[in-house]
Structure formats: structure tokens, C-alpha cells
Amino acid sequence: MPRDVYAVLLHYPVTDKQGDVVSTSITNLDIHDISRASRTFGLKRYFLVTPIEPQQWLAKRIIHHWDEGWGSTYNPNRKDALGIIEVASDLGAVSTIIAEISGAQPKWVTTSAKSYPNSVTFSQMRSIIESDDGPPICLMFGTGWGIHPEIMLESDYVLEPIRGAGDYNHLSVRSAASIIFHELLGRR
């Protein structure tokens, strides 16, 4: 049986155009689209990570609308997808929750549009996920201009970037997450 897989959309610490550490805003589209992709590909949980309390409140309000509010009866499929989302203040909280669910601390897999010398291929990561022994895997996606370099260096794995047909490489995080989920977890 494959390992449990989780996803994190990191809003802090991420970088801006100049490489400075920033916190980005949660967006409605990221909540909906990544939760639907997470549910489609069998992820255990999808975490939105931000230390900003008003941003946490906004995310919880959107989720509540589709999980328990009017939206839950209007679109039950959306309720099902958003039912796997959890809002967390930092990666430490995510690690604790995953350990409680899966019984082990996760291996962290960061994603980036940039190449890193220690990157693993999609095929290598798929093999790791499909192995039946080992801790859960947590795929981490960044917002803004990417995950802060310190987080990249501290991760257990750095996934190779998605490569398109040309030299343009600036996918939305929603698109990148869907492609990566398909590459790592889609049926073969």
C-alpha cells in the first residue's frame, strides 16, 4: 500500500520578486482548486499555512460556507473536496497533525519552478511514495515567488521542476499542484 500523502500550500515564509521574506494572501481559487485536485488524487489532507489570523479566518469562512453552510447543499461535491482542508499557522503545526493522523513525522518534499542540484525526479518520488514502508510524504507548494530558500534546504527532498514545451515557466500554483499530483499519484 502506498504511503499517506499530504499537501501544504505555504503562504509564509515565501519570497517576493526581490527575494525578501513575505507572507502572501490566501486566495479563494487556491482553496477550491487544490482541494479538488487533492481529493481527486487521494491525498489525506490539504493544509493552508499562514500565521496571519485574518487570513486564517478568511480561509475558515470560505471552507465553512462549502462544508456546513448554504454551499454544502448547493454543491455536495465541493463539500466533499473541501472536507480535507485544514488551516494551520506554521509547518510545526502541520507536522504535529500529520504525526497524529499517520503515526509518524512526514518526509517533506518541496516544489519549485527552479532547478536544484539535489532534485529528485517525478519517477524517483513516485517510487518512494509507492513503497510500502516509511513515513508519510508531505508535498509543499509555495506562493508568491516561491518557498523561502531555508525551507528548501531543510526539506528531505526537492522535486524537479515541471518542464513545459518552451522556456516560459510560470504556472499558477493550482496548475502546478494538479500536474504534480498526476505525475506522482495518477493511475498508470
Question: Approximately how much helix is present in the residues?
Answer: 40-55%
Strand order in the largest sheet? 5-4-1-8-6-9-7
Helix-strand topology string = EEEHEHHHEHEEHEHEH
- If you average the pLDDT, what whole number results? 93
Q: Looking at CATH, which topology would you report?
A: Alpha/beta knot
Strand tally: 9
CATH superfamily annotation: SPOUT methyltransferase, trefoil knot domain
Largest sheet: 7 strands, parallel
Shape: globular
Terminal CA distance reads 15 Å
Rg (CA only): 16 Å
Structural write-up:
This protein has eight helices and nine strands. By secondary structure, it is of the alpha/beta class. The protein has a single domain (5-185), classed as Alpha/beta knot (3-Layer(aba) Sandwich), CATH 3.40.1280.10. The protein has a seven-stranded parallel beta sheet, sandwiched between helices. Strands 2-3 form a two-stranded antiparallel sheet. Helix 1 (28-40) packs parallel to helix 8 (173-185). The protein starts with a strand and ends with a helix. The mean pLDDT is 93.
